[in-house]
Write a structure and sequence with these properties.
- The chain is α+β, with helices and mostly antiparallel strands.
- It contains ten helices and 29 strands.
- It has a six-stranded antiparallel β-barrel. A six-stranded antiparallel barrel has the order 3-4-5-8-7-6. Strands 16, 17, 18, 19, 20 and 21 form a six-stranded antiparallel β-sheet that branches.
- The longest helix is centred in the middle third of the chain and has 14 residues.
- It is globular.
Length: 502
């Protein structure tokens, strides 16, 4: 994983080693020390009759029992794949550097794969590790989408050290939830809970594989609920102070009774490691996504079509509101659900289906977790009075939902995604036929084949189509010999195909 750390950043707490986690700038919230002090004094001097009853969950939990009961259902997730290097990630070389005779010594180094004559898209093989947990005894597993992003091979390791090749049923990057399936029966499962019953101060327990240390348990408390994070406004995160580090992503967050209430997903850090602020996706959000993926292979999210912001006291007073609650609409997208419903810039959305909207993030999560086509009843503040508006939600315009295949697109257990050379490529490289490697994973990647290589022959026979390669692999050979052209040079590469893993 390329773990990018900003001055203060939110980091996907997931893939260990080379992976695809992202970092987001986050402006720390400022507090009023005098107001905090006044609140403390008020809490101390308030009469005992005004103290709210203590929730039953606040009883000291038995962490030993939770680990013993649910630990066997927590799994390690190991991934292999090829990361497509972006233009920003490729080192900028001086003009004409590729013609320098010394440039050949740098080929194969990270960031240099895209500098060859045949390689159009620089790529970087990677291995990563995260966590997950079993939700059904027939092999259904939940983890984070960023754990399996760009993965071509996914391996699940159980608590008893058994390993299974996993299929990614679907991956929803909007909520950062992915669903895996392994071919196994009678597996241990976690008990699912209700995150809506959580309160700040309740005890929680995280189990995962931080830095690859499997079955690591850490405890803490709920620090806040309904957190809206930069780039993730759709998910009302559970904030905790349980220690979560790279490798924990996708692992379960348990409440004091031993029920799963969230999926550990991100950390707030200046260094890339744990600093007391961890964020989990509520399990009810994850289960909605899981049900959609199992049924259709993808997840869909509703869209109202507005740009919104929080109110402060000054804005609230200017709109005639007694409190700075609600989501202030600053822009309405044309041809959107909001435009069709008559919502206007300057409206303040106070409720969705009878549920109050205290901050703009609440609106984003309630709308985003609905399905396209759902009807919602909005309470809107306009011209210093409230009114009811009905809206029919649309869908996200370019929904970032991945339905992942278990192996490379066309290469099966060979691990190659191939396409024919274009006329221009044949002419430029003086080739009559060949297949360009779009992606390499599994056996082919281990043999040293890279994206951008051109496959000229398999087992001594010139290749003219993807179907020809597929027919050879369907014969289940133990190994194949591929004739590869790379940067004007040709070499035979033996690939040990072998039997598939179970």
């Amino acid at each position: 994983m390329t773990l990018k750390t900003l001055n203060v950043s939110l980091i996907a707490a997931g893939v260990l080693a080379v992976g695809t986690a992202g970092a987001f700038a986050l402006k720390p919230e400022l507090s009023n020390p005098s107001a905090a002090g006044a609140a403390s004094v008020a809490a101390v001097t308030a009469p005992s009759a005004a103290v709210a009853p203590v929730p039953a969950q606040s009883v000291v939990p038995n962490y030993r029992a939770i680990v013993a009961q649910s630990g066997p259902a927590v799994v390690g997730v190991t991934v292999e794949g090829v990361h497509k290097v972006t233009r920003e990630e490729v080192p900028q070389l001086p003009p004409g550097a590729e013609n320098d005779p010394f440039f050949q010594f740098f080929r194969g180094l990270p960031g240099m794969q895209g500098r060859g004559r045949n390689q159009q898209t620089p790529s970087q093989p990677f291995k990563g590790q995260g966590s997950g947990f079993i939700v059904s005894s027939d092999g259904l597993i939940l983890t984070n989408a960023h754990v399996v992003r760009e993965a071509k091979e996914v391996t699940v390791k159980l608590n008893d050290r058994r390993e299974y090749s996993a299929k990614v049923l679907g991956s929803d990057t909007t909520t950062d939830v992915a669903v895996l399936r392994i071919d196994a029966k009678n597996l241990p499962t976690v008990r699912l809970g209700d995150p809506q019953g959580l309160e700040v101060g309740d005890p929680v327990l995280a189990i995962g594989a931080p830095y690859g240390f499997e079955q690591t348990a850490t405890s803490g408390i709920v620090s806040a609920k309904g957190r809206s994070l930069p780039g993730d406004a759709m998910v009302p995160f559970i904030q905790t102070d349980a220690a979560v580090n790279p490798g924990n992503s996708g692992g379960p967050l348990f409440d004091g009774s031993g029920a799963v209430v969230g999926i550990n997903a991100q950390i707030y850090s200046q260094t890339g490691g744990f600093q007391g602020l961890s964020f989990a996706i509520p399990i009810n959000v994850a289960l909605k996504v899981k049900d959609q993926i199992v049924a259709t292979g993808k997840a869909s999210h509703g869209r109202l079509g507005v740009v919104i912001q929080d109110l402060n006291q000054s804005l609230a007073e200017s709109f005639g509101l007694p409190r700075p609650d609600g989501a202030l609409v600053s822009k309405v997208a044309p041809d959107s659900a909001a435009a069709a419903a008559g919502i206007k810039p300057g409206d303040v959305i106070l409720e969705v289906n009878g549920q109050p909207v205290e901050r703009s993030g609440s609106l984003s999560s309630r709308v985003g977790l609905s399905a396209p086509g759902d009807k919602v009843k909005l309470k809107v503040w306009r011209d210093k009075s409230a009114r009811e508006i009905d809206a029919k939600l649309g869908g996200l315009p370019n929904e970032d939902t991945d339905v992942a295949a278990n192996n490379a697109a066309e290469g099966g257990k060979l691990g190659l995604a191939l396409r024919p050379l274009t006329k221009e490529e044949r002419r430029a490289n003086n080739l009559e036929q060949g297949l360009v490697v779009e992606n390499a994973a599994g056996p082919a990647a281990r043999a040293g084949i890279n994206p951008g290589d051109v496959v000229l022959a398999i087992n001594g026979k010139p290749v003219t189509s993807v179907e020809q390669v597929r027919s050879v692999i369907e014969g289940k050979p133990k190994s194949v010999a591929l004739l590869i052209e790379r940067d004007g040079e040709r070499i035979f590469v033996p690939v040990d195909v072998g039997p598939p893993r179970s």
